[in-house]
Amino acid sequence: QVQLVESGGGLVLPGGSLRLSCAASGSIFSINGMGWYRQAPGKERELVATITSGGSTNYADSVKGRFTISRDNAKNTVYLRMNSLKPEDTAVYYCNADVLRLDRRYEIYWGQGTQVTVSS
What is the mean pLDDT of residues 78-90? Predict the structure, then answer.
């Protein structure tokens, strides 16, 4: 199987920065797209950012210009650098990956989620 393990969440002051990491491991042949989603209390899970295997990125309008998604293909890891954080960014953040497994089947996997709280 494939596992995605997230790290880097925590409490940060408004205007501060935080960097999330998500490392995939297991029966991986390669990884196509990777992304970050978030879910705030009382709201639906929403797309934050995506990145292709070639490095093309896409962002939600609410985070454009503040967040940066990147990846290290050699480490099967995706990152989310969050700058100028606002209280509205408070949510559980989930990474996901479109994985081509060793058995040559594509499967979507999700991380366990990491809490990001922006508060003074």
Answer: 98
